[in-house]
Design goal:
alpha/beta; eight-stranded mixed β-sheet
Amino acid sequence: MTDIWWSTPLYEFLRRCDLSGLDKRVLDCGAGGREPPLWLFSEHGYTTCGIDIQGEAVAKAKQFCQERQAALNIFLGDMRHIPFADACFQFVYSFNAIFFMTKTDIALAMAEIIRVLKPGGLCYVNFMSVDTPDRRPFGEDAYARRLLGSEVWAQHQDDEADGYFASLQVLRKEKRIEDKLVGEHWLKQAYIEYVAQKA
């Protein structure tokens, strides 16, 4: 086990997935990076697949897989146009990824997440709250600006993201505020997290 599992929300989503009785097939939208959370699901017997729009993040995830001889199946892809057929995943999640996009693109991504989710399937998505104080623009070379056309984090009011889940049953909604030490500075971030089920 590595120190990837700082993410309590993903443990809660995994618990709900395990209890659902559905086949263990999961898609991560925004799956790249040096510590891909899909590893948590793989370790619990899930067939995993992940997409990420950033080539460097995909390369880091592939290096992680090579070092651990893991087949997480992470590749280049855009959650605004998920490259899978309708209703082909029992579980879909996007953790700390969707808020790099504009709100217009978030609506597209949410429609795609719902499209690829099987009836009865579960999804988890977290959104950045307006209670996050950081409103600095992304740097000129930031991938969110280059690949997504975003200038800043997309931040949502407490109930603003409810509309994305209008066709789903929301099973859990939680606002979470973190204060964490990053280097020598404290960082405050606030999230609104949803677990929902497709009818």
